[in-house]
Amino acid sequence: MAARQPFTYMDTADEAVRATCDDATICKRFATSKGYWKDPYIQYFARSVGERKAPEINRGYYARVKGVNHLLDAFIRNSECNCQVINLGAGLDTTFWRLKDENLLPKKFFEVDFPTVVALRKLKGISCLMCACFLLDTQSLDSDRYCIIGADLRDISALDEKLKKFHLNPDLPTVLLSECVLVYMTPSQSSNLLRWAAEIFHTAMFINYEQVNMSDRFGQVMIENLLRRQCSLAGAELCQSLDTQKERFLKTGWEHADALDMMTVYSMLPQDDVARMECLEFLDEKELLQQLLQHYNICWASKDKLNLGNSAVCKSFDLRLFI
Residue 14: CA atoms inside 13 Å, Cβ hemisphere, count? Predict the structure, then answer.
């Protein structure tokens, strides 16, 4: 019998990153239980609401969900659903089910995450929801419209092979999503991923939500808190500013890129729904919310050979036009 390999620092770091998947799901479950937005499917992946979360955390997740959904939905509508979605580091995300309910399903929706996340977390929850599917093994699931793949995003050749095995179509307009994923990869690893996507798809948008402005004191405290959990932000140097976020795409083959911090996104959301949401809980620490939102951003980049108008979306992002 082969000797058991010792537990390495990378194993510990990867497990800490995987734990953030559960943290985000539990936060979303609590926020939806309070009425911040509707998600009838998250209960299958976070069985209990859990302990109370601070109002600024709930508002932060609200802005995140609304902002990412805006760009994703705009891309799908521009393509008239003749597209595919790849959710990189998807965790226990429920976007596929929302799109299904809103008649916005793309031709195919792919989710990719660590094999252990897929095997131990996602497939258990998905078994309550999927009927017409084919379970290939403990780390993958495939159906006509929905595919879950266990893969390491740092291994581009294996990722590419698995996506093609499950009928990824490079000729279809494609939107790629990543939420607090690239920041856990080294700059070279994330650049390889962005370059691969830019090379394989001629009409595409990449939507990236993660930290920004990490060089100030608030950002350093965020980094220190994660390090205490053995969770290193290996890509923090690319999260120094909105400019560094945009440059990482422009340097890896993307034609257009733009970015907004989440305080700006929050201010652009429809005010009637923001007013409804803000009535749900009293917020005492308004300055803390502002600091928190200023340290996250949405960056989006595009290639638009088919002239679907995605470049225009990148250049003139106005949430009030779409949400």
Answer: 15
